[in-house]
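Researcher: Please generate the 3D structure of the following complex. Treat every line as part of one assembly.
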Amino acid sequence: MEDAAQSQSTPNAAFTPRVFSGIQPSGGLTLGNYLGAIRRFVDMQESGVQTIYCVVDMHAITVWQEPQALLRQTRELTAGYIAAGLDPEKSILFNQSQVAEHAQLAWIFNCVVRMGWMKRMTQFKDKAGKNAEEASLGLFGYPALMAADILAYHATHVPVGEDQKQHLELTRNTAAKFNHDYGVDFFPMTEPVIEGTATRVMSLRDGSKKMSKSDPSDASRINMTDDADTIARKIRKARTDPDPLPSEDKGLEDRAEARNLVNIYAALSDATVEDVLRDVGGKQFSEFKPMLADLAVAKLAPISKEMARLMEQPDEIDRVLGRGANRAREIAAPILHRTYDIVGMLRST
Ligand code: TYM
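Model: Done. Output below.
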């Protein structure tokens, strides 16, 4: 797959830099979503480039969602975006299902992407588990819709956590195969942006597993809506080993849980792991955990308070998403039209 993307020579310089990313409203927001994605979204918004952030409700329903819960979570994720610093005037914020171009382009990509590529997607294997026959077709085709999300805007950069790397490779391969098959230089080779100390925040209960909103154990994650006591309790109970913290990075080798807590501390305090270890090296977890809890509460409490305030005005959230969808459509519609022309689909003008 990699080869197809690399051999494609579409010069990205020909595309205006544009950032796109999305989060599923399939549960509450976690600290992993915040550190791995949303904070990066805000940085990119502030860098002055055009930024488009989506609440991917069509991806969410690839596994069962209670309708009322989906609605609430769509609004809550939007509130999280805004509370964490995304400004609907600067960034385009909208929910995916309001912009039909995503589904329309996804169909075309369903006809470009190969079954073999999809079968190699580790996220499908993880999510479908042993019961793949019972998984929805949407879950299997999920990465083609993701490619459509990104390429409907000719996005050049996509900030994500580590777990999305394979999906972004598939996006590049989809663009490359489309360009190759139709003999065009139409879709860009989108760059994943996976940077910082928190690209893979791990479970608080098991340092080998990603922190996830779908983990059955609530103690495994910090939710953006957790109150101060809950955050402190979860960090106090986080699994660790009996040794004190090392003063150098290499002392964290083979200590997944310790590394995770240090990474979280570094990300929350905008410091490097080296800086943090210089300060806390030699301390026991009994001393470090309260420091981490205080820091997490100081950073997260204002966001969850603002989310709760915004959730009291659901009409305002819906207006933001509606306006964002109109702006998104203005970019995606002409790109879809040109795609249809390339494919040879007749449309009356
Ligand atoms: P989702 O909803 O699972 O996660 C949203 C974002 O949060 C990041 N993330 C993490 N980062 C660090 N540590 C963690 N423990 C952690 N958990 C989640 C994810 O990497 C992601 O960036 N397929 C995507 C949604 C999507 C999308 C897109 C993303 C749909 N279309 C187009 C980018 C562009 C997903 O399931 O993310």
